[in-house]
UniProtKB/TrEMBL annotation:
Domain HTH lysR-type, chain residue ranges per copy: 1-57
GO molecular function: DNA-binding transcription factor activity; transcription cis-regulatory region binding
Protein name (database record): LysR family transcriptional regulator
Species, as recorded: Clostridium paridis
PROSITE patterns: HTH_LYSR
Amino acid sequence: MESNELRIFKTVALEGSITKAAQILGYVQSNVTARIQQLESELKTPLFYRQRGMVLTPSGEKLLVYAEQILHLLEDAEKALDDSINPSGSLAIGANHTLSSLHLPAILSEYHKAYPKVDLSLITGNTNELIYKVQHFQIDGAFVKSSSISDENIIKELAYEENLVLISSSKYNDIQEVYYKPFIMNTVGCPNRFQLEEWLKSKGIFNIRYMEFNNLDSIIEGVVEDLGASFVPESSIEEYEQLGLIKSFKIPQEYSLAKTFFIRHKDSLKTNALQKFIEIIESKTSFHSIINSDYNSLKTLT
C-alpha cells in the first residue's frame, strides 16, 4: 500500500466520484479506477459500493480514518523538516463570510507583507463546513462561531466576543416596524441567523422571510436600500450609522452576544507560519489566547 494509492483512495472517498477525483488529482479516470481496484485487490476487500457514485463500504470507512492519519503525518513530516525561523510553505485558513470581510483582509495583507514566503490561502464557508475541513486536515485552522462539535481532536486557540445589533433603513425609528420585514442574512447554518430566530421566537414571531446574501457588505448595502433588515456585528455598521444611512436597535445580550473561536486539529503541526499568524491576530484584534483548550462544551448548530 503506497501513499499515492491512499491519496487517490481518500480523494475518491471524499468526492464520491471517480470523475471528480480524477479532475482534482489531474489523472485520467481509467488510472484512478485501476488504482482503486489494485488497492482493493491488495487488501482483499471491496472499499466502495459502485451505485450512483462511489460510496464507502464498512471496510472503506475504516481505511479512510487511517488514510487521513497517514497522509497527514507525511505532510506534517515535510512541514517539520522545512519549518524554519523565517516562515514559509503553505498556510490555509478558514473563516465564515462575515469575519472574512470584516476583520481579516487587513490582517492577511499585513501577514503577507511580513512573511512573503508563505503561500497563504483563505477558505470561506459556514461553521459546519469549516469544522469538517479542520477535522479532515484540509485546512490548518479556522475561525468559527460559538457552535461546534463534541470532538476531543479539535482545540480552540483564540476567542473573540462581539455584539450583534438589529439594523434597518434609517427611515424606521420603532423596532416594532422592523420585526416583520424580510431579513437579509447568510444561508442556513449561520449562527447569527440562529440567534436572530431565537430572539424573534421569544417575541412570538415564527414566520420569518429571508433574502440570502453571503457577503456582509452586500447585506449592509441591501439594508441601506431598504430591501430588508438584518442582524450584524455592531462594529460593521458604525460608519453607516454615523452617516445616517442605517438605524440600529440593541436586543438582550442573551441573543446578541456572539463568540468566535480559532480552532485547529490537536494532531496538526503548529508550524512557525501558523504561530506567526496567531500572533498577528492577537496583536491586531480583540482575539485573546485561551489557556484551556477543551472544546467539548460547544455543540453543533444544525
